[in-house]
Amino acid sequence: MSSSSRDGFTSTFGVLVATLGSAVGLGNIWKFPYLTGTNGGASFLLVYIIATLLVGLPVMITEIMLGRASRANAITTFEKLVPKNQGFWKLTGYMGVAAAVLILAFYTEVAGWVFAYIFKALSGQLSSVDPSHTKAVFGELVANPQSALIWQWLVLGFTGTIIMCGVSKGIEAVSKKLMPILFLLLIALCIRSLTLPGAMHGLEFLFTPDFSKINAAVILTAVGLAFFKLSIGMGTMLTYGSYFRAEQNIPLTATRVMFADLTVSLLAGIAIFPAVFAFGFEPAAGPSLVFITIPAVFHSMPGGSIFMALFFILTAIAATGAILSILEVPVAMLIERCDWSRKKATAISILIIAFFGLPAALSQSLTSNLKFFGLNTFDLFDYISSNILMPVGGILICLFAGWSYGLPKLKEALSNSGTLNNSTLIKVLFILLRYIAPLLIGIILLNGFGWI
One GO term of the cellular component aspect (predicted)? Predict the structure, then answer.
C-alpha cells in the first residue's frame, strides 16, 4: 500500500481527540487513582508530573514523529528510516506489535468487567455500602468462565467493528464523539463528589503534598506510571503518528494530549477521593478501588446508582479509546506487510488476541492452576508487556532517535511544513532522548526485574 493511498486523520481536532483517546484509558480512571491513593496523594502527583515531562512527553513526541516520517506501521517504520547496515532497529517494531497483542489479551478482559459493571450498576446488583458485598459480586464475575469470555469477546467485537471502518471514519469519528462525552461525565461526577460533606479532605489529600512521603519507591512508581500512561513503547504512537497530517505540530499536539490526559486523571481523582473521604472509606484501597470500593462509595450517596452507572460508562469510554489505538497496531502491520484488506486484518488480529486472551480471561477460573514463574496467564501477560517489552521498546526508541537518527533528521522531521522551528526546544528534546529518558526507563526496567 502506498503512503499516498493510506487512510489518515482528517482534522486537527480529530488528531487531538484520537491521540488523547489512546493516552486516556483504564490507567486514568483505575490505575492513577489507586496508585495516588497508595503512594501519598499530592506528593506522588507532583513526582508523576515531573516524570511525565522528563520521560513520557519526549518519547511520545519521538514516536509520533517517527511514525509520520515513515508513513508506515510500527515494523516498516524502522525499515524505512534506518541505515541499511542497522536493520536490527526494526526489532523495536516487532516488540511493539508483540506488546500490543499481549496487552489486549488481558486489557480486553478488564474492559469486559467495566462494561459488565454498567449493567450491574443499573440493575442494582451493586447496591450495598458493604465492600464485602461488592467484593463478592466482583469475585463471582471473574470466576465465571462464561461471563469472563463473553464480555471479553463483546469488547473485541465492539472495538473491532470500529477499526474495520477505518482511521478517519472509524477511529477518528468515534473519538470525536466519545472524548467530549467522557469529559462531560467526569465533570458531572466531580460536581456531585464535591458537594458531599467532608469532600474537602479528599481535595487536601490530592493537592496538598507531604514531601516526607516521597521516597525511592514512590519515585519509581511515578516514573513507571508516566511512561505507561501515554501509550508509549507499544507501537501505538508510532502507528497513530503515521496518520498525522503533514502540517500538524507534533510537539504542540503531544503537549496538549499530555495536559488533557493529566486533566482526566485529576478529574478522576476529584470524582473519587472526596467521595471516598466523605463516607469514611480507605483511599489506599489499591487495585480493588474501582471494582470493590467505588461501588460502595457511590451507593452511599443519594442517587448513587445513577452516578455509579455514569462512572462505569465513562470508564468504558476510556477503555474503548485505548483499545482502538492498541488494536490498530497489529491491524496496520497486517494490512501493509501482508497486503490484506482492513476487514481481514482486523478479523485475524481479533482471533489472535482472543486466542491469547482465552487463558487470561479464565485465569480466575478454569486456568487458575496454570502458572508460569508463579504467575497466572493474566499476570504473566501484564508482566511481560509492562515490565519487559514496553520499557525495552521505549529505550530502543530513545537510543534510535538520539544516536542513530540524529539531531539533523530530528530537526527536519519536527520542522515539517514549517510547524516547528524552535531549535532550542529540539535540542532539549534531543538531550532528553539521548541521555535522561533512556536512563530513567532503564531504571523502570531494572525495577521490574526486582534488581533495584
Answer: membrane
End-to-end CA distance of the chain: 46
∠ at Cα 384 (76, 72), nearest 5°?
10
Q: Is 281 helix (H, G, I), strand (E, B) or coil?
A: coil
Of the candidates 131, 145, 103, 67, which has an alpha carbon nearest to the alpha carbon of residue 295? 131
Helical H runs in 233-341?
Answer: 236-241, 250-278, 293-299, 304-338
The domain in which residue 125 lies consists of: 12-449
Count of the separate structural domains present in the chain: 1
Of the candidates 102, 295, 270, 91, which has an alpha carbon nearest to the alpha carbon of residue 187?
A: 270
Asked whether the beta carbons of 392 and 445 are under 8 A apart, the reply is: yes
Side chain identity at 257, as an amino acid letter?
A: V
CATH of the domain at 206: 1.20.1740.10
Cα 225 from Cα 279, distance rounded (Å): 28
Angstrom CA distances, 226 to 47, 281, 426, stand at 9, 27, 21
Is residue 5 domain-resident?
no
Decide: pTM greater than 0.70: yes
Q: Is residue 239 part of a domain?
A: yes
Q: What is the pLDDT, as a whole number, of residue 288? A: 66
CB–CB of 38/284 below 8 Å?
Answer: yes
Set of cell numbers at residue 391: 520499557
pLDDT means per 10 residues, the chain with 452 residues, are: 71 92 85 85 92 91 94 94 82 95 95 94 86 87 94 98 96 95 91 86 89 87 82 91 91 92 90 81 65 80 84 93 96 96 98 96 91 92 90 93 91 68 81 93 85 75
Phi-psi region of 145 (alpha: psi -120 to 50; beta: other; left: phi over 0): alpha
Query: Do the domain assignments include residue 4?
Result: no
Distance CA 333, CA 116 (A): 31
- Burial class of 135 by CB neighbour count within 10 A (0 to 12, 13 to 18, 19+): middle
For 284, the grid coordinates are: 489506599
Beta carbons within 10 angstroms of residue 425's beta carbon: 12
Place of cell 486537527: 12
Residue 6 lies in a domain: no
